[in-house]
Amino acid sequence: MENYSEFNIQYIKGVGEKRARLFNKLGIFSVADLIHFYPRKYQDWNNCETVLSAPENENVAIKATMITPVKEHLIRKGMTLYKCNFSDGQTVIHVTIFNNKYLAKALRTFDEYILFGKVEKSFTSASMSSPQIECAETAQGIHPIYSATENLNSKAIAKTVKTALEKFEYFEDTLDGEIRDKYNLCSLDFALRQIHFPSDEKNIEIARRRLIFEELLTLQLGLLKLKDKKDTKNNFPLEKDFTEEFLSLLPFTLTNAQSSAIKDCINDMQSSKTMNRLIQGDVGSGKTAVAAAAMFSAIKNGYQAAMMAPTEILASQHFESLSRLFENTDINIALLTGSTKAKEKREIKEALMSGEIDLIVGTHALIQNDVEFKELALVITDEQHRFGVEQRASLAMKSASPHLMVMSATPIPRTLGLIIYGDLDISILNELPAGRKKIRTDVVDTSYHQRIYNFIKKTVDEGHQAYIVCPLVEESESDLISATEYANELSVKYFQGYNLALLHGKMKAKDKDRVMQSFANKETDVLVSTTVVEVGVDVPNATVMLIENAERFGLSQLHQLRGRVGRGSEQSYCILVSDSKGEASKERLAIMKETNDGFKIADYDLKTRGPGDFFGKRQHGLPNLVIADMLEDMETLMECQECAKQMIKEDENLDNYPLLCEQISDMFRKAEY
């Protein structure tokens, strides 16, 4: 039998080369992609209403007989209306069909149909405009609705799925009968057919249960296999712990959480296995100090360390702060980014190979093929690059399984963290460094603008700086002023004589760096920005964060933005401006005023906005999930973790599950970026 994962969508009957390109835009290239492109919702045509009982402006199904022939009305060129009447046995309903000659011709007087759409009622009549119409005898009870594109509607997708399911008579199961029985799962074949064309609502749930389980099991197996790969012999054991010497370099005292995390890292690097640890801490909790301590001990033991940042701005920031910290030591530190001049790049590469450079900070430039190390023992990266082919292959090739530290500023509840970071051990930083004052947060409406601007000017006059964040860079939404226009208006109307700069996502990397560097050097008083400031430089002198249209952001995003201020010893302020009258928005913004605790905010954000917002940003660096939901399917996630552990215990290489192995490879390959 043909392999459906390799069968090109183009060769499904009715698709062809042109339509295949439309499917490709949805990420559908093979039959496997197609049948795993699940409906986003369903229309239930089983429970029919009468015309009188049908609620207005809601999609309903009505079973009715066509009682008058179709009349054609040519309104203008390219616009034809077809009108006819139906009766449900008690009430007549007028139906208008727009530009659908094929449907109009197919309708037969006195035949019974199901009409699906919205009913409009007046005192004397009822009508439907362009409802979906199917013969009552052959109408499907539950209709799948797919995420469509402009030229490929849901109906066309459903038709193609149906053809594909008919072509492949049976889908081989990825799980054996024992696992299916233990976890009360239906067969894969049943699940795939019922998720698309369910015979009833109960079967949707049965199919969903199986497909969610399989997706989360694939994720857990992948994480465990990664952990096994990472649980390799420690090739770079630390003979001595240099933490005490490191502490003498610090101009501040560590929090208990920082001390504990450093101890975890040193213990890992002194153990028999390679370190794979996540340092999870709220904004400003001092993750960099933990990373610096680990690097210091590794270097003092005669090894090299590499720190990879997601942006040049952040890489430069880390380089500068580490250079200051290690100024009076014999540690040789260098910065390597895309902007590094060719001659300097060559010199850095030579010094890395000879071992002259102990610590390298950089961006993706670090993982280029021609960057080689003498003895790279520790790699520090951010969560987005956790599964990147760069870390697992390129950096591993540069060194024999170096220790790995992943830094995350995404607060995730611990129970969830233990599961989604299944391939890493976790240290949590849940305290802020001493001397940091709690950021004062206020929620106001736009009538406060003049007062806010006066407050910002007063702050700048006192020698501080401010951020102003607005959500858009272009006028793609008419009710929001673009960042560019807003910056110009502020400069001319409210901040004459002050230095304003604009930072937005459409700028080139070098221009962003220039703007941020200018702000960090105190050459700019006010930085007007879109959310690109979330991952920015540390500017302790900035004490005000003004966020326009605050209701447009997720809470976790607002919290990340707020974390740009409050980095010095001065009192800092976050002002959220919103004219939103909705109770939900007001409640969400009130949470920001109540607490500075990122974990509490994350909990609330997950519960109210759902994982789509929180996890949809891929902040956690996990592979994308198609049908499962991290939060709602927590119970299933726990079951899958248990099942995955048992499977690997009994069959370490999953030799008995070749199809599942294919899925694991596919899932994690897509997560590499």
Structure in words:
- With 673 residues, this protein is an alpha/beta fold.
- The chain folds into four domains: 1-40 and 153-169, 5' to 3' exonuclease, C-terminal subdomain (DNA polymerase, domain 1); 46-139, Nucleic acid-binding proteins (OB fold (Dihydrolipoamide Acetyltransferase, E2P)), CATH 2.40.50; 243-429, P-loop containing nucleotide triphosphate hydrolases (Rossmann fold, 3-Layer(aba) Sandwich); 440-595, P-loop containing nucleotide triphosphate hydrolases (Rossmann fold, 3-Layer(aba) Sandwich), CATH 3.40.50.300.
- The chain has 23 helices and 23 strands.
- The chain has a seven-stranded parallel sheet, sandwiched between helices.
- A hairpin with a 4-residue loop joins strand 5 (79-87) and strand 6.
- Helix 6 (188-196) crosses helix 7 and helix 7 crosses helix 23 (658-670).
- The longest helix has 30 residues, at 201-230.
- The two termini are 34 Å apart.
Can you summarize this structure?
The protein has 673 residues and is an alpha/beta fold. It has 4 domains: 57 residues, 5' to 3' exonuclease, C-terminal subdomain (DNA polymerase, domain 1, Orthogonal Bundle), CATH 1.10.150.20; 94 residues, OB fold (Dihydrolipoamide Acetyltransferase, E2P) (Beta Barrel); 187 residues, Rossmann fold, CATH 3.40.50; 156 residues, Rossmann fold, CATH 3.40.50.300.
